[in-house]
């Protein structure tokens, strides 16, 4: 193997571990109901909604990463750093989930939440280009990456949510994030 290329095993294990930690932190950040009543549970509906979106985003990212790396033979230092930067941005999800759950109709909270997902998509697009350069002989990889369905459409949805938020409906960002992740999950099941 060429010295500048590496196998993906360690990167995949690291990615899996970080996503598992992020998902664990997400559930630990869920507030407990004040009492053991339905009203107390329903009072936390925004926290549960934000948790659901964030959980689905994290698990969808894990699944997408797994799908891609089944077709990747080689990586280089650039791809490793793209993954590290991706994990840096994804690791903000528990913090931003709590922030948006506590302020669901606040423009700043919603914009930061949506911006995190936009940055994730930009990094995934950048990483997809790098993976295709390093693994140019893998025709199936370009099909698995499917940049239009996996990255461009979610990006457009996030931008749409941001635009609607600036028109006075901040919660639209969370709704667009949910639509995007559900669409990605349905697409991956068909794949």
From TrEMBL:
List the source organism: Methanobrevibacter gottschalkii
Which Pfam families does its entry note?
TMEM175
* Protein family (similarity comment): Belongs to the TMEM175 family.
The cross-references to InterPro entries, in alphabetical order and at most eight, read:
TMEM175-like (IPR010617)
Q: Which reaction does it catalyse?
A: K(+)(in) = K(+)(out)
Q: What is its main location?
A: membrane
| One MF annotation (Gene Ontology) recorded for this entry | proton channel activity
Q: What is this protein called?
A: Uncharacterized membrane protein
- Where does this one sit in the cell? Membrane
Membrane topology (UniProt):
Multi-pass membrane protein
Q: Which residues cross the membrane?
A: 12-28, 48-67, 79-101, 107-128, 140-165
